[in-house]
Amino acid sequence: MADEPSNGELSRLIGRLDNRFAELNSRLDKVVSIDVYAIQTTHVEQRLAGLQAEIQRCGDAITKNEDDFEQYQRDEAKRREDERQKRLYQAIVPVFLGLLSVAVAVWAVVSQ
Fold this sequence. Notes:
By secondary structure, the protein is mainly α. The chain is 90% helix and 0% strand. It is built from two helices and no strands. It has helices at residues 7-29, 34-111. The protein is rod-shaped, with a radius of gyration of 47 Å.
C-alpha cells in the first residue's frame, strides 16, 4: 500500500489532468480544420494567380506605353527635321530666285 498514491494525491493528479485537458482543448480550438485550411489555401492560390495575371497585364501595358513613347519621339524628331528643311527651303528658294533674277538682268544688260 505504500506504493499506491493516497486519495488526496489522486485528486490533485486528476485536477492537473483536467487542467491540462482544458489547456489542450483551448489550444485545439485555435487549430484550423483541414476543410477550412483547404478552402483557404485554394482561395489564396486563386488570389495569387489573379495578382500574377494583373502584374503581367501591367507589365505588358508598361511595355506598350514605352514603345508608344519611343515611336512618338521618333515621329516628333522626323516632324522637326521636316519642318527645319521646309524653313530652309523657304529661305533659300527666294534668295536663289532673287540671285537668278539679278544674274539674268545683268546678263541682259551685258549682252546688249
